[in-house]
Amino acid sequence: MREGDKVAFEMIFNCYYPILYAYAGRYVEKDDAEDVVQTVMVDFWERRRTLSPDLQFSPYLFRAVYYRCMTCITHGQARKRTEARYWELVPDAIGIDNDSFEKENLISRLMDALGRLPDDWREVIILHKFGSMSYAEIAEKLQITTKSVDYRMQKAMSALRLLLKDSPVLLLLLWL
Predict the structure, then answer these.
(1) Which CATH architecture has domain 1-69?
(2) Can you list the positions of beta strands (E) in 46-130?
(3) Which whole-number Å values give the CA distances from 26 to 19, 80, 120, 160, 175, in the listed order?
(4) Considering the entire predicted model, what is its pTM?
(5) Positions of CATH 1.10.1740.10 in the chain
(6) Among residues 166, 76, 160, 176, which one has the least CA distance to residue 110?
(7) Please, which residues have CB within 8 angstroms of residue 144's CB and are 6 or more apart in sequence?
(8) Cα 3 versus chain centre, distance
(9) What φ, ψ does residue 96 adopt, rounded to 5°?
(10) How far apart are CA 27 and CA 138, in angstroms?
(11) Does domain 90-176 have CATH number 3.40.50.300?
């Protein structure tokens, strides 16, 4: 495969695609899971010459799918849920027209702040705040303890408090 053998790549693709698709399906919708796996496999092919000869395919591909799913969640679902929740909870209270530039600006700032968090903190806050999952459900999904979920949530909220200190509306939404 390193030398551009498409048959070798096709064998790897056919072997790993169904497993990676099922794995991605644990995190994102079916359509997104398909896109995630295809993107990872294309990226794998494009990087074939720069990958270590000792690379183990399975851990590499699973980790790549995981990170791509987290990116998909962060940029897609979280944005939609945040926007919907924002406009449900704070319609006229702050005097912003629904079609205004300010709406996009606030949502963009929240997404940027979430994007600055470490992956494990961001994942927990997205699952809890935007996925409406309990700490126990998150712990089960991520195969960690509820105490770890609580710790990550505390750290994420502290970091967001600092990142969004000049935007009390966004901070309020995160605590609702």
Answers:
(1) Orthogonal Bundle (1.10)
(2) none
(3) 11, 19, 16, 27, 27
(4) 0.44
(5) 1-69
(6) 160
(7) none
(8) 33
(9) -110, 130
(10) 12
(11) no
